[in-house]
Design goal:
Blueprint lengths: L11 E5 L1 E2 L2 E2 L2 H16 L3 E7 L6 H6 L4 E6 L8 H15 L3 E5 L2 H13 L4 E5 L1 E8 L5 E9 L4 E5 L7 E5 L16 E4 L31 E5 L9 H11 L2 E4 L1 H5 L20 E5 L5 H7 L4 E6 L5 H5 L2 E4 L2 H16 L1
Parallel strand pairs: 1-4, 1-6, 4-5, 5-12, 6-11, 7-11, 13-14, 13-15, 15-16, 16-17
Antiparallel strand pairs: 2-3, 8-9, 9-10
Helix pairs in contact: 3-4, 5-9
The structure holds flavin-adenine dinucleotide (FAD).
Flavin-adenine dinucleotide binds next to helix 6, helix 7 and helix 9.
């Protein structure tokens, strides 16, 4: 890689992910950390939106802290493909030379970041949970950006720096930062970037999109989650978890073993290789509390553990620990909740 003039790169960008017509909430989490870094660097905070019919999000994003918004809006970008979205973002970044690009570590963001880094001949740091400026230098006389991320299955946290790479591309793990507060009426600059995807000779095309038909609450946004683990013993016992979730108005989560065994789809998995959740209430049924599970739910406000083993990690750290056989306890609890409701 040839030496580049690092001083040319200015500004903090957040990739605003619009998924099937909705802006994902992680964009507001990026704005919290993006705005902190931009202020410390005295650089501009921008959001880049790629997709179609994007104008509707601009005011919210300005109010959430963005100073400038780039719109890469085209009918051919209505549905996400790695190839087209990354191409759009890479063309703009090559021209504008941002210093940092923050991308949510969602499925879309994780998929794009490596491809983007390759096109721009730079480095990407994945799945970051915190960012600080300094210690260390950034190769251009300023403070280095230190990216903190879990490694070795969540047993260690490492600090990674890309001192000679620009732009620095970073994917940020969902729920690592609170959502940015809004300042009503705030204004900023909106740039409609002219793009022509037809000229990109794209090899991938979305033919159609059919959303999954499900009435289940999504664990990513639920206030209450009831999760089941290997202690359920068999797939049918997820009905116990579902009945408790229904009684509480909660979403259904899972540790990894039931997902690996095919008892429940992956979208329910909480943890290091699943999803990070931060509900007000997390009920763990037959889950021991290995570090990889805690990485996904350890920040819940109130944790209730139901387990036969009082010595397991989740029972020790829970707000309320219930030493019981879940096969006996959950039906009693559901019945009691029903009585209380009546
Ligand atoms: C790289 C890597 C990534 C990983 N990512 C994840 C991840 O994202 N999410 C995740 O969850 N795990 C993940 N894991 C797996 C993790 O290490 C653990 O194996 C897993 O979390 C254990 O799940 P568990 O608690 O359901 O099962 P166990 O650890 O087997 O615990 C079962 C619990 O059920 C209790 N129990 C059994 N029967 C009953 C009963 N009848 N009533 C009440 N309690 C009962 C037991 O006492 C025990 O505490 C990962 C591992 C690695 C190496």
């Amino acid at each position: 890689m040839s030496e580049i003039d690092l001083t040319q790169y200015k500004g903090v960008w957040c990739f605003g992910e619009v998924r099937h017509g909705k802006l994902v909430t992680q964009t507001y989490e990026l704005l919290t950390i993006g705005s902190r870094i931009a202020k410390e660097l005295n650089e501009k905070l921008s959001v880049v939106l790629v997709g179609h019919n994007l104008q509707g999000w601009t005011q919210e994003l300005l109010e959430a802290g963005a100073e400038k918004i780039y719109l890469l809006d085209h009918p051919e970008l209505e549905n996400f493909t790695d190839e087209a979205y990354t191409k759009a973002l890479a063309e703009l970044a090559a021209k504008e030379k941002p210093n940092k690009i923050l991308i949510p570590a969602t499925t879309v963001g994780r998929s794009m970041a490596g491809r983007l880094a390759t096109i721009l001949h730079t480095g990407a740091i994945a799945d970051v949970t915190d960012l600080t400026l300094g210690p260390g230098t950034n190769g251009a006389g300023g403070r280095a950006l230190n990216a903190i991320r879990p490694t070795y299955g969540g047993n260690l946290f490492v600090t990674v720096r890309c001192e000679k790479c620009r732009p620095e591309i970073i994917t940020v793990r969902p729920m690592s930062f609170p959502k940015a507060a809004r300042t009503p009426g705030k204004i900023g600059e909106i740039v409609n970037v002219p793009i022509n995807p037809s000229s990109w000779n794209l090899k991938t095309k979305v033919v159609s999109y059919a959303p999954e038909q499900s009435s289940e609450l999504d664990i990513g946004s639920a206030d209450k989650i009831v999760s089941g683990g290997r202690g359920l013993g068999k797939p049918d016992n997820f009905n116990l978890v579902r009945s408790l979730a229904k009684a509480l108005g909660a979403a259904v989560g899972s540790s990894r073993p039931p997902v690996d065994s095919g008892w429940i789809p992956y979208r329910h998995q909480v943890g290091l290789t699943g999803r990070t959740v931060k509900p007000k209430l997390y009920v763990a049924c037959g889950i021991s509390g290995q570090i990889q599970h805690l990485a996904g739910m350890g920040q819940a406000d109130t944790i209730i553990a139901i387990n036969r083993d009082p010595e397991c990690q989740l029972m020790k750290m829970a707000t309320f620990s219930v030493e019981a056989d879940l096969n006996e306890f959950i039906p009693l609890l559901v019945e009691e909740i029903g009585k209380q409701k009546n």
